[in-house]
């Protein structure tokens, strides 16, 4: 098979480095260009010592790259930045063959006004945003295969949508009173220096943040509303854990009339029976089960009330919640085995 020529924009951030870790083990990938305007003309091993022996290309500025010689571009840029860059790249007729896999939020919303509402920024590329497919791999596989622009889901939404979409589609749970209580490692905030993410600020501590207003609420509600064919509102609260990576979400919802807890388990088992990366566990799930992998583990339990159900969902925010799902989507697009580059063991302990 001809090598897939890859470019990574924003290669020096956490998701960019995670992509390199995964793609370096992919037998059909050639990492052709690494792009970082603030780090151009340097080698990645100058920023990350563990990369000294990988013979990676030198970082370049965006304008130095000929995208006509690239097959797929991964965008690992901050929110509000990707849209203008990809609009410019795709305006060149020589680049119409390109596949774009964006890890920011810039193409996740179907309605640009929803993007403006949640991100406080007018969408600058609405004409290409209309071509984007929401890249939740197990749910939108057929659409992803045919798309030019893939909007990779957020890490929190991935942990919530994978269990909830099949249940809402099959009308097993009530479509209101859904509570999503999530905890994430600090790498989810990116590599830029922020006082609130300093070691002394988060070590031996634990906090909720963006209560009732986190930007991922809009993304979660959009996809759940599509699944249920009705408007869905959720209560979502994220928390910051004093760990590097990983997400665990605890989801509280109520069973519909005449639905038993076993129906919930059977639905999820059926939905993901043939999926390698999503598994319904028969035990409690933990971050140590998934950190460093592209797995999402789900567990179903009865609540204290007769009609309540509690679902726990664990994944790695940098992998299944970002770069791993991006590689999985690339494999779908190029008709590769979805596991390529992603058959990796958890980082334990």
Topology, element by element:
Layout: E1 4-9, H1 14-23, E2 29-35, E3 59-60, E4 72-75, H2 82-90, E5 99-102, H3 112-119, H4 126-129, E6 132-134, H5 137-146, E7 149-151, H6 155-169, E8 178-184, H7 199-202, E9 207-208, H8 216-228, E10 234-240, E11 247-254, H9 261-271, E12 278-280, E13 296-302, E14 308-315, H10 319-333
Parallel strand pairs: 1-2, 1-4, 2-3, 4-5, 5-7, 6-7, 8-10, 12-13
Antiparallel strand pairs: 8-11, 9-10, 11-14, 13-14
Helix pairs in contact: 1-10, 5-10, 6-8
Summarize the structure in words.
The protein is α/β, with parallel strands linked by helices and 349 residues long. It has two domains: 4-152 and 320-333, 3-Layer(aba) Sandwich (Rossmann fold), CATH 3.40.50; 156-317, Dihydrodipicolinate Reductase, domain 2 (2-Layer Sandwich). The chain is 28% helix and 20% strand. It contains ten helices and 14 strands. It has a seven-stranded parallel beta sheet, with helices on one face. Strands 9-10-8-11-14-13-12 form a seven-stranded mixed beta sheet. β4, α2 and β5 form a beta-alpha-beta unit. α1 packs across α10 (319-333) and α6 packs parallel to α8. The longest helix is centred in the middle third of the chain and has 15 residues, at 155-169. The chain is globular. The two termini are 37 Å apart.
């Amino acid at each position: 098979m001809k090598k897939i020529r890859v470019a990574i924009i924003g290669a020096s951030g956490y998701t960019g480095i995670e992509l390199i870790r995964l793609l370096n083990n992919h037998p059909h990938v050639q990492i052709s260009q690494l792009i970082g305007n603030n780090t151009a003309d340097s080698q990645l091993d100058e920023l990350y010592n563990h990369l000294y022996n990988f013979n990676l290309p030198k970082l370049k500025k965006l304008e130095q790259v000929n995208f006509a010689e690239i097959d797929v571009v991964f965008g690992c840029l901050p929110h509000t930045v990707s849209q203008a860059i990809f609009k410019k790249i795709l305006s060149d007729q020589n680049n119409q063959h390109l596949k774009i896999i964006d890890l920011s939020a810039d193409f996740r919303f179907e309605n640009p006004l929803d993007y403006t509402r949640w991100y406080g920024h007018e969408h600058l590329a609405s004409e290409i945003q209309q071509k984007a497919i929401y890249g939740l791999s197990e749910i939108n596989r057929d659409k992803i295969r045919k798309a030019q622009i893939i909007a990779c889901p957020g890490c929190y939404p991935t942990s919530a949508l994978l269990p909830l979409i099949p249940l809402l589609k099959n009308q097993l749970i009530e479509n209101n009173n859904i509570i999503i209580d999530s905890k994430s490692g600090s790498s989810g905030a990116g590599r830029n220096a922020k006082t609130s993410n300093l070691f002394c600020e988060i070590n031996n501590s634990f906090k909720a943040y963006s209560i009732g207003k986190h930007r991922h609420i809009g993304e979660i509600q959009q996809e759940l509303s599509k699944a249920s064919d009705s408007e869905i509102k959720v209560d979502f609260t994220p928390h910051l854990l004093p760990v590097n990576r990983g997400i665990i979400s605890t989801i509280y919802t109520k069973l519909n009339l005449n639905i038993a807890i076993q129906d919930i388990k059977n639905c999820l088992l059926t939905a993901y029976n043939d999926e390698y990366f999503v598994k319904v566990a028969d035990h409690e799930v933990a971050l140590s089960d998934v950190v460093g992998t592209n797995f999402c583990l789900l567990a179903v339990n009865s609540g204290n009330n007769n009609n309540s159900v509690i679902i726990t969902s664990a994944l790695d925010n940098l992998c299944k919640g970002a770069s791993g799902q991006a590689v999985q989507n690339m494999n779908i697009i190029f008709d590769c085995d979805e596991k390529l580059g992603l058959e990796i063991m958890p980082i334990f302990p």
